Amino acid sequence: MSAALETRLLCKRFGALTVAENINFALEPGARHALIGPNGAGKTTFVNLLTGRLAPSSGQVMLAGEDITKVGAPGRVKRGLGRTFQINTLFRNMSVLDNVALGVAERTGVAMRFWRPAAKYSEVRDEALALLDSLGIADEARRNVADLPYGKQRLVEIAIALGLKPNVLLLDEPAAGVPTLESERILEALAKLPKEMAILIIEHDMDLVFRFASHITVLVQGAVLCEGTPTEIRADARVREVYLGERHG
Amino acid sequence: MRHPVGYNANHRLRLTEYLPWVLAIATFFFLGDYLSLGARVLTYILFALSLDLIVGYAGIVTLGHAAFFGTGAYVAGVLSVKVGLTDPILQVLAGAAAAGVLGVITGAVVLRTRALTQLMLTLAVAALCFEVANKANSLTGGADGLSGVNVAPILGVFKFDMFGKTAYLWCLGLLFIGWFIVRRLVYSPFGASLTGIHQNSVRMQTIGAPVYTRLLMVYAFSAVIAGAAGVLLMQTSQFVGLNVLGFEPSGELLVMLTLGGVGRLYGAFVGPIVYLIAQDYLAKQFPEYWYFGIGLLLVLVVMFARGGVLGIIDAALARLRRKP
Fold this sequence. Notes:
Shape of chain A: globular
Strand order of the largest sheet of chain A: 6-7-8-3-9-10
Mean pLDDT of chain A: 90
Oligomer: heterodimer
Structural class of chain A: alpha/beta
Largest interface: A-B, 43 and 31 residues
Helix content of chain B: over 70%
Structural class of chain B: mainly alpha
Strand content of chain B: under 5%
Low-confidence stretches of chain B: none
Order of helices and strands of chain A: EEEHEEHEHHHEHEHEEHH
Low-confidence stretches of chain A: none
Number of strands of chain B: 0
Number of helices of chain B: 14
Protein backbone atom coordinates (compact mmCIF):
# COMPACT_ATOMS: atom_id res chain seq x y z
CA MET A 1 0.00 0.00 0.00
CA SER A 2 1.30 3.44 -0.89
CA ALA A 3 1.99 6.06 1.74
CA ALA A 4 -0.76 8.57 2.54
CA LEU A 5 1.65 11.37 1.68
CA GLU A 6 5.11 11.06 0.26
CA THR A 7 7.85 13.28 -1.14
CA ARG A 8 10.66 12.21 -3.45
CA LEU A 9 13.86 14.24 -3.67
CA LEU A 10 11.93 17.41 -2.91
CA CYS A 11 13.99 20.59 -3.34
CA LYS A 12 13.24 24.27 -2.94
CA ARG A 13 15.72 27.03 -3.63
CA PHE A 14 15.32 30.78 -3.39
CA GLY A 15 18.21 31.94 -5.55
CA ALA A 16 21.36 30.58 -3.93
CA LEU A 17 19.54 29.73 -0.71
CA THR A 18 18.44 26.12 -0.41
CA VAL A 19 15.56 25.76 2.05
CA ALA A 20 14.62 22.18 1.20
CA GLU A 21 17.22 19.71 0.03
CA ASN A 22 16.36 16.29 -1.43
CA ILE A 23 13.71 15.53 1.13
CA ASN A 24 12.45 11.95 1.00
CA PHE A 25 9.61 11.64 3.37
CA ALA A 26 6.71 9.25 3.84
CA LEU A 27 3.62 9.57 6.00
CA GLU A 28 1.86 6.23 6.46
CA PRO A 29 -1.95 5.94 6.62
CA GLY A 30 -3.12 6.53 10.18
CA ALA A 31 0.32 7.73 11.23
CA ARG A 32 0.99 10.04 14.18
CA HIS A 33 4.14 11.61 12.85
CA ALA A 34 6.02 14.65 14.11
CA LEU A 35 8.38 16.94 12.25
CA ILE A 36 10.85 18.70 14.50
CA GLY A 37 13.94 20.80 14.01
CA PRO A 38 15.57 23.99 15.27
CA ASN A 39 14.32 27.42 14.20
CA GLY A 40 14.89 28.06 10.52
CA ALA A 41 15.21 24.37 9.71
CA GLY A 42 12.64 24.80 6.95
CA LYS A 43 9.68 23.09 8.62
CA THR A 44 7.07 25.60 7.51
CA THR A 45 8.59 25.73 4.02
CA PHE A 46 8.23 21.97 3.86
CA VAL A 47 4.58 22.20 4.88
CA ASN A 48 3.99 24.88 2.24
CA LEU A 49 5.55 22.60 -0.36
CA LEU A 50 3.25 19.79 0.74
CA THR A 51 0.10 21.92 0.62
CA GLY A 52 0.97 23.58 -2.68
CA ARG A 53 1.41 27.12 -1.39
CA LEU A 54 4.96 26.90 -2.71
CA ALA A 55 6.04 25.16 -5.89
CA PRO A 56 9.14 22.98 -5.51
CA SER A 57 12.28 23.64 -7.58
CA SER A 58 12.49 19.90 -8.24
CA GLY A 59 11.16 16.63 -6.87
CA GLN A 60 7.72 15.16 -6.39
CA VAL A 61 4.85 15.21 -3.93
CA MET A 62 2.58 12.15 -3.92
CA LEU A 63 -0.78 11.91 -2.18
CA ALA A 64 -2.02 8.32 -1.77
CA GLY A 65 0.13 7.28 -4.72
CA GLU A 66 -1.01 10.08 -7.02
CA ASP A 67 1.52 12.64 -8.21
CA ILE A 68 0.13 16.01 -7.05
CA THR A 69 3.26 18.09 -7.66
CA LYS A 70 1.48 20.13 -10.31
CA VAL A 71 -1.85 20.32 -8.47
CA GLY A 72 -2.66 23.70 -6.92
CA ALA A 73 -3.57 24.24 -3.27
CA PRO A 74 -7.38 24.02 -3.69
CA GLY A 75 -7.02 20.82 -5.73
CA ARG A 76 -4.95 19.24 -2.98
CA VAL A 77 -7.58 20.13 -0.40
CA LYS A 78 -10.21 18.46 -2.59
CA ARG A 79 -8.03 15.34 -2.70
CA GLY A 80 -8.00 15.14 1.08
CA LEU A 81 -4.99 17.14 2.24
CA GLY A 82 -5.86 19.48 5.10
CA ARG A 83 -3.76 21.82 7.18
CA THR A 84 -3.81 24.25 10.06
CA PHE A 85 -1.70 27.36 10.36
CA GLN A 86 1.02 28.27 12.83
CA ILE A 87 -0.50 31.72 13.23
CA ASN A 88 -4.28 31.70 13.43
CA THR A 89 -5.67 32.24 9.97
CA LEU A 90 -9.33 32.66 10.68
CA PHE A 91 -12.24 34.67 9.34
CA ARG A 92 -12.00 37.13 12.18
CA ASN A 93 -15.28 38.97 11.79
CA MET A 94 -17.39 35.86 11.50
CA SER A 95 -19.00 33.58 14.01
CA VAL A 96 -17.19 30.43 15.07
CA LEU A 97 -19.88 28.39 13.35
CA ASP A 98 -19.42 30.26 10.05
CA ASN A 99 -15.67 29.73 10.20
CA VAL A 100 -16.21 25.98 10.19
CA ALA A 101 -19.33 25.96 8.00
CA LEU A 102 -17.51 27.72 5.15
CA GLY A 103 -15.14 24.77 4.86
CA VAL A 104 -17.88 22.17 5.18
CA ALA A 105 -19.83 23.98 2.45
CA GLU A 106 -16.81 23.91 0.14
CA ARG A 107 -16.33 20.19 0.66
CA THR A 108 -19.95 19.30 0.07
CA GLY A 109 -20.39 21.63 -2.90
CA VAL A 110 -22.99 23.74 -1.10
CA ALA A 111 -20.78 26.83 -1.39
CA MET A 112 -21.83 27.43 -5.00
CA ARG A 113 -25.54 27.66 -4.19
CA PHE A 114 -26.71 31.22 -4.56
CA TRP A 115 -30.45 31.24 -3.99
CA ARG A 116 -31.50 29.55 -0.75
CA PRO A 117 -30.33 31.31 2.42
CA ALA A 118 -27.23 29.69 3.93
CA ALA A 119 -29.01 29.32 7.26
CA LYS A 120 -31.41 26.84 5.66
CA TYR A 121 -28.67 24.36 4.84
CA SER A 122 -29.09 22.56 8.15
CA GLU A 123 -26.83 19.68 7.09
CA VAL A 124 -23.90 22.09 6.89
CA ARG A 125 -24.73 23.73 10.20
CA ASP A 126 -25.24 20.41 11.96
CA GLU A 127 -21.94 19.04 10.74
CA ALA A 128 -20.10 22.20 11.79
CA LEU A 129 -21.77 22.11 15.20
CA ALA A 130 -20.93 18.44 15.68
CA LEU A 131 -17.28 19.21 14.93
CA LEU A 132 -17.23 22.10 17.40
CA ASP A 133 -18.83 19.80 19.93
CA SER A 134 -16.17 17.14 19.45
CA LEU A 135 -13.53 19.79 20.20
CA GLY A 136 -15.48 21.05 23.20
CA ILE A 137 -16.27 24.52 21.88
CA ALA A 138 -19.88 24.11 20.74
CA ASP A 139 -20.95 26.72 23.31
CA GLU A 140 -18.99 29.35 21.43
CA ALA A 141 -20.62 28.66 18.04
CA ARG A 142 -22.41 31.99 17.81
CA ARG A 143 -19.59 34.14 19.13
CA ASN A 144 -17.39 36.22 16.92
CA VAL A 145 -14.16 34.29 16.52
CA ALA A 146 -12.02 37.37 17.28
CA ASP A 147 -13.60 37.56 20.75
CA LEU A 148 -12.43 34.07 21.76
CA PRO A 149 -9.38 33.45 23.92
CA TYR A 150 -6.35 32.41 21.89
CA GLY A 151 -6.42 28.77 22.92
CA LYS A 152 -9.96 28.37 21.70
CA GLN A 153 -9.09 30.10 18.46
CA ARG A 154 -6.47 27.40 17.96
CA LEU A 155 -9.22 24.81 18.31
CA VAL A 156 -11.33 26.65 15.71
CA GLU A 157 -8.30 26.52 13.45
CA ILE A 158 -8.27 22.73 13.83
CA ALA A 159 -12.06 22.52 13.44
CA ILE A 160 -11.89 24.29 10.07
CA ALA A 161 -9.35 21.75 8.81
CA LEU A 162 -11.40 18.82 10.11
CA GLY A 163 -14.48 20.15 8.33
CA LEU A 164 -12.74 19.25 5.08
CA LYS A 165 -12.61 15.59 6.15
CA PRO A 166 -8.95 15.24 5.25
CA ASN A 167 -7.22 11.87 4.91
CA VAL A 168 -3.99 13.66 5.73
CA LEU A 169 -3.83 16.49 8.24
CA LEU A 170 -0.85 18.79 8.66
CA LEU A 171 -0.80 20.59 12.00
CA ASP A 172 1.59 23.51 11.96
CA GLU A 173 2.37 24.20 15.62
CA PRO A 174 -1.15 23.66 16.94
CA ALA A 175 -0.17 24.75 20.44
CA ALA A 176 1.94 27.76 19.49
CA GLY A 177 1.35 30.68 21.81
CA VAL A 178 -1.00 28.73 24.03
CA PRO A 179 -0.52 28.53 27.84
CA THR A 180 0.35 25.03 29.14
CA LEU A 181 -3.07 24.47 30.67
CA GLU A 182 -4.81 25.08 27.37
CA SER A 183 -2.27 23.14 25.34
CA GLU A 184 -3.40 20.16 27.39
CA ARG A 185 -6.91 20.64 25.96
CA ILE A 186 -5.51 20.79 22.46
CA LEU A 187 -3.62 17.55 23.02
CA GLU A 188 -6.85 15.96 24.28
CA ALA A 189 -8.64 17.13 21.15
CA LEU A 190 -5.88 15.74 18.94
CA ALA A 191 -5.97 12.39 20.71
CA LYS A 192 -9.63 12.04 19.74
CA LEU A 193 -9.06 12.49 16.00
CA PRO A 194 -10.09 9.57 13.77
CA LYS A 195 -7.51 6.77 13.83
CA GLU A 196 -7.42 6.32 10.06
CA MET A 197 -6.42 9.95 9.51
CA ALA A 198 -2.69 10.39 8.85
CA ILE A 199 -1.39 13.30 10.91
CA LEU A 200 1.85 15.22 10.62
CA ILE A 201 2.48 17.62 13.47
CA ILE A 202 5.10 20.34 13.49
CA GLU A 203 5.67 21.44 17.03
CA HIS A 204 8.19 23.15 19.28
CA ASP A 205 6.75 21.80 22.50
CA MET A 206 8.86 18.61 22.88
CA ASP A 207 6.66 17.31 25.66
CA LEU A 208 3.66 17.41 23.32
CA VAL A 209 5.62 15.85 20.46
CA PHE A 210 6.84 12.88 22.49
CA ARG A 211 3.40 12.23 23.93
CA PHE A 212 1.54 12.52 20.62
CA ALA A 213 3.80 11.10 17.95
CA SER A 214 4.81 7.51 17.36
CA HIS A 215 7.27 8.52 14.67
CA ILE A 216 9.56 11.55 14.41
CA THR A 217 11.50 13.13 11.55
CA VAL A 218 14.23 15.66 12.35
CA LEU A 219 14.83 18.42 9.85
CA VAL A 220 18.01 20.49 9.96
CA GLN A 221 18.90 23.19 7.44
CA GLY A 222 16.34 22.00 4.94
CA ALA A 223 17.46 18.35 4.96
CA VAL A 224 16.34 15.28 6.86
CA LEU A 225 18.86 14.53 9.59
CA CYS A 226 17.27 11.33 10.81
CA GLU A 227 13.99 9.69 11.65
CA GLY A 228 12.69 7.05 14.03
CA THR A 229 10.56 6.38 17.09
CA PRO A 230 10.59 8.87 19.96
CA THR A 231 12.93 6.60 21.91
CA GLU A 232 15.40 6.39 19.04
CA ILE A 233 15.26 10.13 18.49
CA ARG A 234 15.86 10.83 22.18
CA ALA A 235 18.87 8.55 22.08
CA ASP A 236 20.32 9.86 18.81
CA ALA A 237 23.58 11.69 19.44
CA ARG A 238 23.30 13.91 16.36
CA VAL A 239 19.85 15.08 17.38
CA ARG A 240 21.11 15.90 20.87
CA GLU A 241 23.90 17.88 19.35
CA VAL A 242 21.95 20.06 16.89
CA TYR A 243 18.68 20.26 18.64
CA LEU A 244 18.02 18.89 22.06
CA GLY A 245 21.58 19.63 23.04
CA GLU A 246 20.88 23.31 23.00
CA ARG A 247 18.43 22.89 25.81
CA HIS A 248 19.35 19.79 27.68
CA GLY A 249 23.09 20.16 27.61
CA MET B 1 -28.90 47.70 10.17
CA ARG B 2 -25.78 45.82 9.32
CA HIS B 3 -27.28 42.39 9.17
CA PRO B 4 -24.89 39.50 9.46
CA VAL B 5 -24.91 36.95 6.66
CA GLY B 6 -23.90 33.31 6.74
CA TYR B 7 -25.05 30.09 8.36
CA ASN B 8 -26.24 31.73 11.59
CA ALA B 9 -27.99 34.61 9.90
CA ASN B 10 -31.62 35.47 10.15
CA HIS B 11 -32.54 35.91 6.51
CA ARG B 12 -36.16 36.93 6.95
CA LEU B 13 -37.26 40.38 5.83
CA ARG B 14 -37.16 42.87 8.68
CA LEU B 15 -39.73 45.60 9.08
CA THR B 16 -37.19 48.29 8.16
CA GLU B 17 -36.54 46.55 4.85
CA TYR B 18 -40.03 47.48 3.67
CA LEU B 19 -39.25 51.14 4.26
CA PRO B 20 -37.49 51.93 0.94
CA TRP B 21 -40.38 50.50 -1.04
CA VAL B 22 -43.04 52.29 0.99
CA LEU B 23 -41.14 55.56 0.49
CA ALA B 24 -40.70 54.90 -3.22
CA ILE B 25 -44.41 54.29 -3.72
CA ALA B 26 -45.32 57.30 -1.57
CA THR B 27 -43.02 59.38 -3.77
CA PHE B 28 -44.97 58.23 -6.81
CA PHE B 29 -48.29 59.37 -5.38
CA PHE B 30 -47.30 62.51 -3.50
CA LEU B 31 -44.30 63.97 -5.28
CA GLY B 32 -45.51 63.85 -8.88
CA ASP B 33 -43.30 66.76 -9.93
CA TYR B 34 -40.11 64.95 -8.99
CA LEU B 35 -40.66 61.70 -10.83
CA SER B 36 -37.97 62.22 -13.44
CA LEU B 37 -35.46 63.04 -10.70
CA GLY B 38 -36.85 60.06 -8.82
CA ALA B 39 -36.22 57.75 -11.79
CA ARG B 40 -32.63 58.96 -11.88
CA VAL B 41 -32.22 58.28 -8.18
CA LEU B 42 -33.64 54.76 -8.61
CA THR B 43 -31.25 54.16 -11.51
CA TYR B 44 -28.31 55.23 -9.37
CA ILE B 45 -29.48 53.05 -6.50
CA LEU B 46 -29.45 50.02 -8.79
CA PHE B 47 -25.99 51.01 -10.00
CA ALA B 48 -24.77 51.49 -6.41
CA LEU B 49 -26.25 48.14 -5.43
CA SER B 50 -24.16 46.43 -8.08
CA LEU B 51 -21.07 48.17 -6.71
CA ASP B 52 -21.86 47.22 -3.11
CA LEU B 53 -21.98 43.57 -4.10
CA ILE B 54 -18.37 43.54 -5.26
CA VAL B 55 -16.87 46.24 -3.01
CA GLY B 56 -18.81 45.66 0.18
CA TYR B 57 -19.24 41.91 0.06
CA ALA B 58 -16.53 40.44 -2.15
CA GLY B 59 -13.90 43.08 -1.29
CA ILE B 60 -12.95 43.94 -4.87
CA VAL B 61 -11.73 47.52 -5.26
CA THR B 62 -12.76 49.45 -8.35
CA LEU B 63 -12.81 52.92 -9.76
CA GLY B 64 -14.07 51.82 -13.14
CA HIS B 65 -17.53 50.47 -12.54
CA ALA B 66 -18.97 53.03 -14.96
CA ALA B 67 -17.45 50.94 -17.76
CA PHE B 68 -20.35 48.51 -17.33
CA PHE B 69 -22.93 51.21 -16.74
CA GLY B 70 -21.83 53.02 -19.90
CA THR B 71 -21.56 49.83 -21.95
CA GLY B 72 -25.15 48.96 -21.05
CA ALA B 73 -26.33 52.43 -22.02
CA TYR B 74 -24.37 52.54 -25.29
CA VAL B 75 -25.14 49.02 -26.48
CA ALA B 76 -28.86 49.44 -25.90
CA GLY B 77 -28.75 52.96 -27.39
CA VAL B 78 -26.84 51.97 -30.51
CA LEU B 79 -29.11 48.95 -31.05
CA SER B 80 -32.10 51.28 -30.83
CA VAL B 81 -30.71 53.82 -33.29
CA LYS B 82 -29.03 51.50 -35.79
CA VAL B 83 -31.03 48.29 -35.63
CA GLY B 84 -34.36 49.58 -34.44
CA LEU B 85 -34.44 47.53 -31.25
CA THR B 86 -36.95 49.61 -29.32
CA ASP B 87 -38.56 47.12 -26.97
CA PRO B 88 -37.52 48.28 -23.47
CA ILE B 89 -37.28 44.77 -22.02
CA LEU B 90 -35.09 43.56 -24.87
CA GLN B 91 -32.97 46.69 -24.53
CA VAL B 92 -32.35 45.94 -20.86
CA LEU B 93 -31.49 42.32 -21.64
CA ALA B 94 -29.12 43.31 -24.47
CA GLY B 95 -27.35 46.04 -22.48
CA ALA B 96 -27.04 43.87 -19.38
CA ALA B 97 -25.72 40.92 -21.40
CA ALA B 98 -23.13 43.08 -23.16
CA ALA B 99 -21.95 44.49 -19.82
CA GLY B 100 -21.78 40.96 -18.43
CA VAL B 101 -19.57 39.80 -21.30
CA LEU B 102 -17.30 42.80 -20.73
CA GLY B 103 -17.30 41.91 -17.04
CA VAL B 104 -16.04 38.39 -17.75
CA ILE B 105 -13.34 39.56 -20.15
CA THR B 106 -11.99 42.44 -18.05
CA GLY B 107 -12.55 40.62 -14.77
CA ALA B 108 -10.33 37.80 -16.02
CA VAL B 109 -7.46 40.29 -16.00
CA VAL B 110 -8.42 42.67 -13.20
CA LEU B 111 -9.12 39.94 -10.64
CA ARG B 112 -5.67 38.41 -10.97
CA THR B 113 -4.41 41.41 -9.04
CA ARG B 114 -5.18 42.97 -5.69
CA ALA B 115 -5.50 46.33 -3.97
CA LEU B 116 -3.82 49.26 -5.75
CA THR B 117 -2.93 47.34 -8.90
CA GLN B 118 -6.53 46.22 -9.15
CA LEU B 119 -7.72 49.78 -8.69
CA MET B 120 -5.44 51.00 -11.48
CA LEU B 121 -6.57 48.25 -13.84
CA THR B 122 -10.25 49.06 -13.32
CA LEU B 123 -9.44 52.69 -14.09
CA ALA B 124 -7.65 51.59 -17.25
CA VAL B 125 -10.60 49.46 -18.39
CA ALA B 126 -12.98 52.39 -17.99
CA ALA B 127 -10.57 54.68 -19.84
CA LEU B 128 -10.36 52.19 -22.72
CA CYS B 129 -14.15 51.98 -22.95
CA PHE B 130 -14.34 55.77 -22.92
CA GLU B 131 -11.88 56.04 -25.80
CA VAL B 132 -13.61 53.34 -27.85
CA ALA B 133 -16.95 55.16 -27.51
CA ASN B 134 -15.23 58.44 -28.33
CA LYS B 135 -13.57 57.15 -31.50
CA ALA B 136 -16.46 55.05 -32.80
CA ASN B 137 -18.09 58.23 -34.04
CA SER B 138 -20.34 56.68 -36.65
CA LEU B 139 -21.94 54.38 -34.07
CA THR B 140 -21.95 56.37 -30.86
CA GLY B 141 -21.90 59.97 -32.03
CA GLY B 142 -18.55 60.43 -30.30
CA ALA B 143 -18.24 63.50 -28.12
CA ASP B 144 -21.65 64.78 -29.24
CA GLY B 145 -23.35 61.83 -27.63
CA LEU B 146 -25.92 59.43 -28.97
CA SER B 147 -29.31 60.96 -29.64
CA GLY B 148 -32.40 59.81 -31.49
CA VAL B 149 -32.87 56.87 -29.17
CA ASN B 150 -36.30 55.25 -29.34
CA VAL B 151 -38.04 53.37 -26.59
CA ALA B 152 -41.28 51.59 -27.41
CA PRO B 153 -44.07 51.14 -24.85
CA ILE B 154 -43.40 48.44 -22.26
CA LEU B 155 -45.08 45.20 -23.41
CA GLY B 156 -46.57 47.33 -26.18
CA VAL B 157 -48.94 48.95 -23.70
CA PHE B 158 -47.29 51.35 -21.26
CA LYS B 159 -45.87 54.36 -23.05
CA PHE B 160 -43.07 56.41 -21.55
CA ASP B 161 -45.11 59.57 -20.84
CA MET B 162 -43.85 63.11 -20.51
CA PHE B 163 -44.53 63.19 -16.76
CA GLY B 164 -42.17 60.31 -16.21
CA LYS B 165 -44.74 58.12 -14.47
CA THR B 166 -44.04 55.03 -16.56
CA ALA B 167 -40.30 55.62 -16.40
CA TYR B 168 -40.42 55.88 -12.61
CA LEU B 169 -42.38 52.67 -12.15
CA TRP B 170 -40.23 50.89 -14.72
CA CYS B 171 -37.07 51.86 -12.85
CA LEU B 172 -38.68 50.93 -9.55
CA GLY B 173 -39.69 47.53 -10.92
CA LEU B 174 -36.20 46.76 -12.17
CA LEU B 175 -34.61 48.01 -8.97
CA PHE B 176 -36.92 45.69 -7.03
CA ILE B 177 -35.90 42.71 -9.14
CA GLY B 178 -32.21 43.63 -8.82
CA TRP B 179 -32.51 44.10 -5.05
CA PHE B 180 -34.37 40.82 -4.65
CA ILE B 181 -31.71 38.84 -6.51
CA VAL B 182 -28.80 40.56 -4.77
CA ARG B 183 -30.38 40.00 -1.38
CA ARG B 184 -30.90 36.30 -2.08
CA LEU B 185 -27.31 36.03 -3.23
CA VAL B 186 -25.87 37.82 -0.22
CA TYR B 187 -27.59 35.51 2.26
CA SER B 188 -26.81 32.35 0.27
CA PRO B 189 -23.83 30.03 0.80
CA PHE B 190 -22.26 31.71 -2.24
CA GLY B 191 -22.63 35.08 -0.50
CA ALA B 192 -21.11 33.65 2.67
CA SER B 193 -18.13 32.43 0.66
CA LEU B 194 -17.71 35.92 -0.82
CA THR B 195 -17.58 37.37 2.68
CA GLY B 196 -15.02 34.69 3.51
CA ILE B 197 -12.91 35.72 0.53
CA HIS B 198 -13.18 39.36 1.59
CA GLN B 199 -11.97 38.57 5.11
CA ASN B 200 -9.27 36.06 4.29
CA SER B 201 -8.76 34.95 0.73
CA VAL B 202 -5.69 32.84 1.57
CA ARG B 203 -7.67 30.81 4.03
CA MET B 204 -10.49 30.41 1.54
CA GLN B 205 -8.01 28.84 -0.85
CA THR B 206 -6.74 26.49 1.79
CA ILE B 207 -10.27 25.23 2.44
CA GLY B 208 -10.52 24.44 -1.25
CA ALA B 209 -12.48 27.42 -2.57
CA PRO B 210 -11.74 28.44 -6.16
CA VAL B 211 -11.34 32.09 -5.15
CA TYR B 212 -10.58 33.50 -8.57
CA THR B 213 -13.50 31.80 -10.30
CA ARG B 214 -15.87 32.90 -7.63
CA LEU B 215 -14.71 36.52 -7.80
CA LEU B 216 -15.05 36.41 -11.57
CA MET B 217 -18.63 35.18 -11.27
CA VAL B 218 -19.68 37.91 -8.88
CA TYR B 219 -17.81 40.53 -10.88
CA ALA B 220 -19.61 39.55 -14.08
CA PHE B 221 -22.93 39.46 -12.28
CA SER B 222 -22.33 42.90 -10.83
CA ALA B 223 -21.49 44.09 -14.36
CA VAL B 224 -24.84 42.73 -15.57
CA ILE B 225 -26.72 44.78 -12.97
CA ALA B 226 -24.64 47.89 -13.67
CA GLY B 227 -25.34 47.40 -17.38
CA ALA B 228 -29.07 47.18 -16.73
CA ALA B 229 -28.85 50.40 -14.73
CA GLY B 230 -27.06 52.00 -17.69
CA VAL B 231 -29.90 50.97 -20.00
CA LEU B 232 -32.36 52.59 -17.59
CA LEU B 233 -30.40 55.83 -17.81
CA MET B 234 -30.52 55.65 -21.60
CA GLN B 235 -34.25 54.94 -21.61
CA THR B 236 -35.26 57.66 -19.18
CA SER B 237 -33.07 60.39 -20.68
CA GLN B 238 -33.36 59.15 -24.31
CA PHE B 239 -29.75 60.12 -24.78
CA VAL B 240 -26.30 58.69 -24.03
CA GLY B 241 -23.48 61.13 -23.34
CA LEU B 242 -19.81 60.20 -23.41
CA ASN B 243 -19.54 61.21 -19.75
CA VAL B 244 -21.30 57.99 -18.61
CA LEU B 245 -18.01 56.23 -19.30
CA GLY B 246 -15.83 58.88 -17.70
CA PHE B 247 -14.06 58.76 -14.39
CA GLU B 248 -16.69 60.92 -12.72
CA PRO B 249 -19.61 58.49 -12.52
CA SER B 250 -17.30 55.74 -11.18
CA GLY B 251 -15.87 58.05 -8.55
CA GLU B 252 -19.22 59.59 -7.69
CA LEU B 253 -20.75 56.17 -7.29
CA LEU B 254 -18.06 55.11 -4.84
CA VAL B 255 -18.60 58.34 -2.90
CA MET B 256 -22.35 57.68 -2.82
CA LEU B 257 -21.84 54.15 -1.54
CA THR B 258 -19.35 55.31 1.09
CA LEU B 259 -21.74 58.01 2.29
CA GLY B 260 -24.56 55.47 2.56
CA GLY B 261 -22.49 52.68 4.07
CA VAL B 262 -20.50 49.92 2.34
CA GLY B 263 -21.42 46.25 2.63
CA ARG B 264 -24.88 46.88 4.03
CA LEU B 265 -27.15 46.42 1.02
CA TYR B 266 -29.14 49.51 2.00
CA GLY B 267 -26.17 51.84 1.92
CA ALA B 268 -26.74 51.71 -1.84
CA PHE B 269 -30.24 53.10 -1.23
CA VAL B 270 -29.30 55.81 1.24
CA GLY B 271 -26.07 56.93 -0.45
CA PRO B 272 -27.41 58.25 -3.77
CA ILE B 273 -30.23 60.06 -1.97
CA VAL B 274 -27.87 61.71 0.54
CA TYR B 275 -25.48 62.59 -2.25
CA LEU B 276 -28.08 64.10 -4.56
CA ILE B 277 -29.74 66.06 -1.74
CA ALA B 278 -26.37 67.33 -0.52
CA GLN B 279 -25.46 68.23 -4.09
CA ASP B 280 -28.73 70.10 -4.57
CA TYR B 281 -28.41 71.99 -1.28
CA LEU B 282 -24.74 72.82 -1.66
CA ALA B 283 -25.17 73.93 -5.26
CA LYS B 284 -27.79 76.43 -4.12
CA GLN B 285 -25.83 77.73 -1.14
CA PHE B 286 -22.35 77.74 -2.65
CA PRO B 287 -22.73 77.53 -6.42
CA GLU B 288 -18.99 77.76 -7.02
CA TYR B 289 -17.78 75.47 -4.26
CA TRP B 290 -20.35 72.70 -4.05
CA TYR B 291 -17.79 70.02 -4.83
CA PHE B 292 -15.79 71.22 -1.86
CA GLY B 293 -18.80 70.51 0.35
CA ILE B 294 -19.14 66.97 -1.01
CA GLY B 295 -15.44 66.43 -0.43
CA LEU B 296 -15.68 67.69 3.13
CA LEU B 297 -18.67 65.44 3.77
CA LEU B 298 -16.73 62.46 2.46
CA VAL B 299 -13.68 63.23 4.60
CA LEU B 300 -15.86 63.54 7.70
CA VAL B 301 -17.63 60.26 6.98
CA VAL B 302 -14.41 58.38 6.33
CA MET B 303 -12.73 59.80 9.44
CA PHE B 304 -15.55 59.57 11.93
CA ALA B 305 -18.23 57.29 10.54
CA ARG B 306 -16.75 54.49 8.51
CA GLY B 307 -20.13 52.83 8.17
CA GLY B 308 -21.63 55.89 6.46
CA VAL B 309 -25.08 57.22 7.29
CA LEU B 310 -26.36 53.72 8.12
CA GLY B 311 -23.36 53.23 10.39
CA ILE B 312 -24.28 56.39 12.30
CA ILE B 313 -27.85 55.14 12.68
CA ASP B 314 -26.55 51.76 13.89
CA ALA B 315 -24.34 53.39 16.50
CA ALA B 316 -27.18 55.64 17.68
CA LEU B 317 -29.58 52.69 17.99
CA ALA B 318 -26.98 50.68 19.90
CA ARG B 319 -26.54 53.58 22.33
CA LEU B 320 -30.29 53.90 22.83
CA ARG B 321 -30.55 50.20 23.57
CA ARG B 322 -27.81 50.34 26.17
CA LYS B 323 -29.63 53.08 28.10
CA PRO B 324 -32.70 51.59 29.77
